[in-house]
Write a structure and sequence with these properties.
The chain has 289 residues and is of the alpha/beta class. It contains 12 helices and 10 strands. Helices cover 44% and strands 14% of the residues.
């Protein structure tokens, strides 16, 4: 039995919520790469992790979404290694009994346009994965992907560490908001990631909780892997210069049973979701036991 399935032996696990918006609440200036705060403001980064643990998260992520050599072009190899290792250490210190899954985000460049090539992508993801694994994470999460080929390269690089690898896509395009920006469907994503050797597949960001149920159901029907689901707190709207998300934590959590029944193995929140959302999910889970 894989480590992921061992962790899931007693049922669905509650993950954490958004990190970027929580760091912004703690003073992260617009335009600042959040990952750099692992070194410059470690106490604030750890406070986010601790807030989710206290809310009941059984899995928390790391503040390392952009810490690869392409997304953070200009950073030295040593700086990136330090940022990744610090991100793991901060989440691990806050975790208590929670699992720590390291966040690996996309490069931000397009393979299809020739901005970068597959060798550069693989090297960037492999270096990040090595740093995260050496720092002692439980699993690696390749998240917010839109390009199946980039995700395939990331999974291949991450698998070299020997750790469980989860890969999650952002479905936010198409008439029904059920395709990635590059046009991939839940079915094509699931098939490709099974072939790539991922240990779990899922969806994060992109859509709110209601649409996530449909995407979750389609991922579940397309493969036998555990399903990772982290919907947005709702669709973003602008209020002056601030971005606001809705609806409420209670509305979000009211879909717990539907997401569980749709096949979710890991469930949390993405953009706009706060520790309050996780606390509400935990309450909804307990009410079904």
């Amino acid at each position: 039995m894989s480590r992921l399935r061992e962790w899931l032996a007693n049922g669905l696990l509650i993950t954490d919520g958004a990190w970027g918006t929580e760091l912004q609440v703690r003073g992260l200036p617009p335009g600042t790469i959040p990952d750099t705060w692992n070194l410059t403001h470690p106490e604030r980064v750890e406070a986010v992790a601790r807030a989710y643990v206290e809310a009941g998260s059984q899995v928390i992520l790391t503040n390392t979404f952009r810490a690869n050599a392409i997304a953070m072009h200009g950073s030295t190899e040593d700086d990136l290694d330090a940022i990744n290792r610090a991100g793991v250490a901060l989440s691990r210190h806050a975790a208590v009994e929670a699992l720590v899954f390291a966040s690996i985000g996309p490069t931000g460049k397009m393979l299809l346009s020739g901005e970068i090539d597959s060798e550069q992508v693989t090297a960037a993801f492999a270096a990040q994965a090595r740093s995260l694994a050496a720092a002692g994470v439980d699993a690696l999460l390749v998240e917010t992907m839109s390009d199946v080929e980039e995700a395939r390269l990331a999974v291949d690089a991450a698998r070299r560490t020997g750790l469980p690898v989860i890969v999650s896509f952002a479905f936010d395009s198409g008439k029904n908001k059920d395709r990635t920006m590059m046009g991939a469907t839940p079915e094509s994503v699931a098939e490709a990631m099974v072939e790539a050797g991922a240990d779990a597949v899922g969806a994060n960001c992109g859509v709110g909780v209601e649409q996530a149920i449909l995407i979750c159901r389609r991922l579940r029907a397309a493969c036998d892997l555990p399903i990772w689901i982290k919907p947005n707190a709702g669709l973003p709207t602008m209020e002056g210069t601030a971005v606001r998300y809705g609806p409420s934590a209670e509305f979000f959590a009211s879909h717990y049973a539907a997401l569980r029944d749709a096949g979710a193995s890991f469930l949390g929140g993405c953009c706009g979701s706060t520790p309050e959302f996780i606390r509400a999910l935990v309450s909804a889970q307990r009410a079904t036991l």
